[in-house]
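Batch job 17 of 40 flagged for manual review because the log was empty.
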Amino acid sequence: MTNEPRDPVPLWMTTVSLAGAAVAMWAVWLGWDQRYDVRPDGSTTGPYEAWQVIGLGLTLLMPVCAAALRGHGAAAVLGPSGGLTLAAAYDWSDDASGLFVIGVGMIMIGSAAATALVAALTSTLHETVSGAGRPRPARLLDRALPPARVSGDH
């Protein structure tokens, strides 16, 4: 397994781009829904529905995998996790109880764990399928015979 990025884009640029994508996707999927729904029994749910959170996760899956395939595993974890943490902190900061900090911490830890798992699986699967990082096996004849001469070589 090679740890060097296979992409000329600097690691910091990939990290910042992924963080920006995570903030934008938070706004698209979750940022517009700010009200709690009241059920007939009087209990409240929300403000987010399951489909919104699943949509956010699936949308961020592609850029995380793309960064991991390019050898930017650290950016694949730090960018989206940092972006989601910033978005949650901004979105929930008007909570008067102060408990939003616990939710933001859960977003930070959960998104870091999820993106680390996805990045590791993507990198491992890519290297397994493509054979990247594996040394080419030496063939017995390559070592036993001298290099072939081309006519005209003397």
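Reviewer: the log was empty due to a logging misconfiguration, but the result itself is present. Helices lie at 11-31, 50-69, 73-92, 100-130, 140-144. Unflagging and moving on to job 18.
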